[in-house]
Write a structure and sequence with these properties.
Elements (H helix, E strand, L loop, with lengths): L18 H15 L1 H15 L14 H15 L18 H4 L7
Length: 107
Amino acid sequence: MRVPAGASPPITVPPRPSAAAGTMAESDALEEQFAGVDALIAQAEAEALQLPEKPAATAEELTEQERREVESAIGLIYGEDRRGVRPGMPREHTGSRLRHRHAHRPR
């Protein structure tokens, strides 16, 4: 661009990163932070595919102690009231990470 004699050249200001770029960078940082957890989930899912479809034992075949242990494990996962809320965890933090994994990423 030619600037007339005696005139100042135009000032160019570098563009500021958009809010979307900031959100994407934050999203990428979160994904990196949870990469180890995602790898464990993927490994568990792959191992689960190798399990037989039928349970090793039916509920009737379990001892009373085994039933209590199963109920305790289910309570840890779904919450004692079976509503999907674990003890001490706010409701907005429940649910599968896999389902919500990319929900925050702009489309």
